[in-house]
Amino acid sequence: MTTLSPLVPSVFETVESEVRSYCRAWPVVFERASGSRLHDEHGRPFLDFFAGAGSLNYGHNNPVLKRALLDYLASDGITHGLDMSTTAKRDFLEAFRATVLEPRALPYKVMFPGPTGTNAVEAALKLARKVTGRETVVSFTNAFHGMSLGSLAVTGNSAKRAGAGVPLPHATRMPYDRYLDGAMPDFLWFERMLADPGSGLDHPAAVIVETVQGEGGINVARAEWLRGLADLCRRHDMLLVVDDIQMGCGRTGDFFSFEEAGITPDIVTLSKSISGYGLPMALCLFRPELDVWQPGEHNGTFRGNNPAFVTATAALDAYWRDSTLRDRTLGRAARVEQALSELCGDDGRTALGYRGRGLVWGLEFADGERAAAVCRRAFELGLLLETSGPYDEVVKLLPPLTATDDELDEGLGVLTRAVRHTAGRAAS
């Protein structure tokens, strides 16, 4: 296998910052990609079960989306437009309303806050505080919402929070679903703190939650827990914010990950796969009565990424006019679950357990060292995976939703080989 030479420093090592991360786990130079595979500069293929951290739900260089983008660029379509009205933005808004909002009876206004997920979270938190006049936001154990200061304040991971270098105020953590292993009824602690004037919890402006915690270790909230949370927010006059940045756009089956629970959040954040093509794009959705912004009160230079509007519209047209992709994703969930179940049933040395929904799954190990070893072996065998969880103890699977059945089986087969290989080493 061709890798970066450890003897001759590359330009990545001499010029690029030490902050680089994924390239350390995958020490090759990638050159091209198509569908579910990347190729390094020497032509070696790698099956991608990382999918740009969930930003490539429809695969690399999806031909339908690529054609729309190339046609737009060839016609000298607007590339940078701030928040000006353009044909590309109009086409996207009309398609999003007709394909996503109206079929689900969702009343949301659409805001373009800036091109990344953390931009969308910052806008959501800022709006919730502006609407309610309150400061505190409740988030959950093992949550991850982004790397800017407001998003870090509602993130649980201590290492990421430490990088802020300043206090991260006005946020309070509550236990996520099953965090206490059934030691008390859902939300008992939260409700008592809200009711007790001596608890020290200021009346929150909002609660922000992921229905599946991706970076937190693929922790899946039950539908009844999410419904209970929505009811709690309603009874106590708190806005419910669902962060659907990684789990939206079909990752769990439905377009929005909260649909299964039958709830309607007050605010929703989307990014990653909303552009469909891996282009920077983010949305903040909210109920019309919350649209209290003054013109220009929250803005950004790159909140009008018109090429992303074009590919986003093409993705909606190609994949969300009917339920084909949704049904296919839910059907494949059973395929992945069966493979992981068999892995965990091999013996006590393979894995501790698995969990997931749709096409996001996690395989849990006793520690981060073992999970990292599985990912290293998978890379050697041509499969890209990453770890997650508070100790990096969970191997995360995020295959493209458009992967073929053969590619899905191939990736699961490589994962099985990697797990068994490391189990053998652990036993020796």
UniProtKB/TrEMBL annotation:
It holds the Pfam family Aminotran_3. Its cofactor is pyridoxal 5'-phosphate. One of its GO terms (molecular function) is pyridoxal phosphate binding. InterPro entries: Aminotrans_3, Aminotrans_3_PPA_site, Dat, Ectoine_EctB, PyrdxlP-dep_Trfase, PyrdxlP-dep_Trfase_major, PyrdxlP-dep_Trfase_small. Keywords: Aminotransferase, Pyridoxal phosphate, Transferase. One of its GO terms (biological process) is ectoine biosynthetic process. Its EC number is 2.6.1.76. The keyword Oxidoreductase does not apply. Pathway: Amine and polyamine biosynthesis; ectoine biosynthesis; L-ectoine from L-aspartate 4-semialdehyde: step 1/3. NCBIfam families: dat, ectoine_ectB, PRK09264.1. Belongs to the class-III pyridoxal-phosphate-dependent aminotransferase family. This is Diaminobutyrate--2-oxoglutarate transaminase. It comes from Streptomyces laurentii.
